[in-house]
Amino acid sequence: MKRYRIVLLVLVFVALAGFIVLRRSQVSAQTVNVKVTPTNVSRAVLAKVNPGQRPAFDQDVMSNLIPVFEEEKKAGILTGYEFFNNVTADNPNDWTVGMLLTYANYAALDGLGDRTDPIELKHYGSAAKRQAAGEHRNQIRTVVSNRLIRMVSYSQATPVS
Question: Could you say which DSSP state residue 108 is in?
Fold first, then answer.
């Protein structure tokens, strides 16, 4: 009987040790050496252009937005900007155009208004004209979504020894 207990205890110990080794090998097999590096920050604005207002929207982009964004790039405020169209609308109220304003990092957003204000005032000529242009823009399109997004870069991480 004692011999049976010893054998049983040895078998239980071996089974437990085997389970622990197997479990650790599964966990280490699931560990992936991935490095996720945050990069630039972008403001994504999705808008629905009101029916019949696409030519007015495009004219506003060419006359007002692009010149201001170009000056902001020259001043080092923006690193880039893009416009895009939605070709797969989910419903009639979905966004139709998008704009992506890209900044180097979150710090670039500190005091953003103080740095962009002189550029905008120079372009529009006065705060009242800038306000009128904004109100006109609101009549030709409706903002559906306005998001701040952070891009990330994936790469293989160097394994730690």
Answer: G
Task: Return the amino acid letter for 135.
Answer: E
Specify the long-range contacts of residues 125-133, CB closer than 8 Å, at least 24 apart. 133/60, 133/64
**Contacts made by residues 157-161, CB under 8 angstroms, sequence distance 24+:** 157/33, 157/34, 157/35, 158/33, 159/33
The alpha helices in the chain, defined as continuous H runs, are: 2-30, 54-60, 66-74, 112-124, 127-140
CA distance to 29, 32, 67, 79, per residue, from 154 (Å)? 19, 12, 34, 21
- The one-digit pLDDT tens for each residue of the chain (161 residues) are 676 677 666 666 777 777 776 676 555 555 668 888 889 999 999 999 999 999 999 999 999 999 999 999 999 999 999 999 999 989 989 999 999 999 999 999 999 999 999 999 999 999 999 999 999 999 999 999 999 999 999 998 776 65
Angle at 80 between CA 128 and CA 98, to 5 degrees: 70
Separation of alpha carbons 34 and 156, rounded Å: 5
- Please write down the HEC assignment for all residues of 49-93: ECCCCHHHHHHHHHHHHHHHHHHHHHCCCCCEEEEEECCCCCCCC
